[in-house]
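Supplementary Methods S3. Complex input for the KG4-bound model.
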Amino acid sequence: MTNDKGILTLGIETSCDETSVSVVRNGNYVLSNVVASQIPIHRVFGGVVPEVASRNHIDVIDDVTRQAIIQAGITLGDIDLIGVTYGAGLVGALLVGVSYAKSLAQALNVPLMAVNHIEGHLCANYITHHTLAPPFISLMTSGGHTAISLVEHKNTYTTLCSTVDDAVGEAFDKVARLLGLPYPGGPEIDKLAQQGQPKIVFPSVLLRNGNFSYSGLKTAVANYINKCNMTNTPINREDLCASFTKSAIDGLIDRAVSCANKFSIRSIVLSGGVSANTYIRQRASQLTEQGYNIYMPQLCYCTDNGAMIASCAYYMYIYGQQPADLSLNACPTLKLRGEYVKKHQ
Ligand code: KG4
Ligand code: ZN
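Predicted complex, serialized as structure tokens:
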């Protein structure tokens, strides 16, 4: 399969509200990364409408793929490998990408790798940091997933702790909704938080057993807003956003550090949409002063994109994982491989 162009992987991502297709050389060199975002379409509904998302993926996927091929300066015939997100995500949205990828792989007669979206987020770091290699501690923070894992080898994960209810990105979006901010709320809260001070004390998201819970924090913010409204007290939205952000992030960073210490690992790797947050990036960066190596994707690879899926597919392929066949189906509740290891807590 190798040639002087290296291995060219086409990555296809349609798990939620972004249709994205990318061409990546040898797992970490991005030749093109086209993202058609549906955010303006869903914003009027205050969140993603699954049926609308599926229909929009169908409308644009072929054009997005053509653009990715043209921008990469190649032809479809140059593609060596295809990777597609098959979970976790919205079932209808996933099925669009999976069906398209299966047809294309069959037509081009190239292997197809079924990529776990969460694993894809982590692989965004291999694009940004070419020398990054396990072992490291992964802090994954997205709209649907929040977990800390031990990564001992590429493609081998042991989940150490995770959220027991909402994901951190989901909490950002719900709090933004309480404040009447547009969808997706995370970037809106981020902007306001930078102009405020964390003056309000909200509860920690850390549970005693080492997991996280975001429902208590979300309720505390809702109660604070209700109390202000009932007593006609003006809400300082900037301070509220800074305070919420601090509570939502501090527990994650502190826990990632204690996991790193427990396993005598100095490298911590951030990924997922919330790793675009200004405060989490600042807090993580400060850890370098204590001797930790901190890795995070470039901002454009934090949220959903085809490049991270192509990168993941490449490493799965070269590490000998079996390609998918035509029976590949969408798996909306897919988890990261690796078991929950209680003894490590
Ligand atoms: O990883 P992602 O693109 O999709 C999932 O796999 O879920 O993450 C989307 C989430 C949303 O909840 C969004 O509000 C959040 O990431 N997000 C942010 C920021 N940018 C995106 N949250 C906080 N600060 C940001 N700058
Ligand atoms: Zn994602």
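The longest strand covers residues 29-37. Residues 339-345 have pLDDT under 50 and may be disordered.
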